[in-house]
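Protocol step 4 of 5: obtain the predicted structure for the target chain.
Materials: sequence only (see below). No template structures provided, no constraints applied. The aim of this step is simply to have a reference model before the mutagenesis design in step 5. Sequence pasted as it appears in the construct record:
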Amino acid sequence: MKIDSKKLLILFAVILTLAFAAALTACEPVEPKYEIPDLSAVTYDGEKTLADIALPDGWTWSAPETVLTAAVNEYPAVFTPQDIKKYKTVTVNVPLTVNKADYNGITHAYLSADDGEYTLADFELDEHFSWGDGAEVPDSGNGFYRAKYNADPANYNDYELLVNVKLFDGEVVFAAEAFSIGAGYIIAPGVYKIASGETAAEVFLRALEQNGLGYIGSAAQIKAVTGVNLAGYDNADFVKSKLHSDILAAFEDWEIEILGLGDIDVLSDSEICYDPLFGLYYSGWMYTVDGKLPGVGMNEKALLGGETFRFQYTVTWGDDIGCGFKMFSDYLEYEQVDRDGYTYYLAYINFNGYAEALGEAYAAAVEAISTIGITESELNGVFETLIAAEAELMEGEEISASLFGGAAQNKFWFIECVNYEH
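Step 4 output (structure tokens):
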């Protein structure tokens, strides 16, 4: 049989092609064996990306810039085997749990209203806050009620907190004084609403805010009042001219240095009088409630309403204002006059807005009560003039406005409040 050479060549070419193709197929990389990474859960923080999540050797994230969100998600990752000639790279989804984060230290300012009938829903909370039970009826006075905060529920757990609701059911008289250094009132006597059970610190901080002042320290220990603007008090000689002679004598005998203020806008407990022998300042802030030194920090002294609360600056650890430790009492021979009743009366004048109309009589009373060393008799005389001026202003009419919850009071009742029986 004659063989067709042309057909033979074609057959041979086909066999070679098939053989070559089979050889190529035998050399192609195959899919490797691998285990999908088992990753530990992480917590959402708003900035974490896939690049922050470590993968085992051979693995890389397909989109490492992806920002993580709280959920059980799957993200594409690439596995590259060591022998890339023999094995393929593969892309698979890798599961990753991102837990919701917790808020820390979230607070809400107190909410307040005059005493009445309310539910918590009547008090509007700031954005992202909500009441635990908006139908709950708050009690009169000072209370704390459940609320929660969440600005990003998809990524954060609810933050539970207590919000202070104050239903003002009383009033106190408050004044801040710098009589010991001849600087008068830092805050003139006034009437301040109170939610029974509030601490003296809460009332004090509210009074500062309402009068545009600030403080340094804590509610437990006020180290300075800021925003006072005591012009001239940065000069030691000026300060010396404002101190009572008995105080000056004590300082001279004890070799205490008299200093000017470092900042006339700040009256702190490290000012005015420095004892170089012991490295001490004898100045600072003290407070009395109804004429007594409570013996606890303002943040621990609860007020019920009706009290006279005076915050006072001292340069002799309280001896100069009549409530000290008697370290300097042998030197301070001037009469210590209880000023609570007078303070109450001035608060009444300011409460009713009479101060401007009473003019010189009111100004003289403020100057007299601010004067360290004034006698009770002298103070009585000045306040008798003020009471007479107020009687003339009122022309014998009963006073409708009153302190402390609208008790039946007239001007004669107020005169009795300042009856000088201290």
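Step 4 remarks: The longest helix spans residues 5-27. Confidence is low (pLDDT under 50) at residues 399-415, 418-422.
Proceed to step 5.
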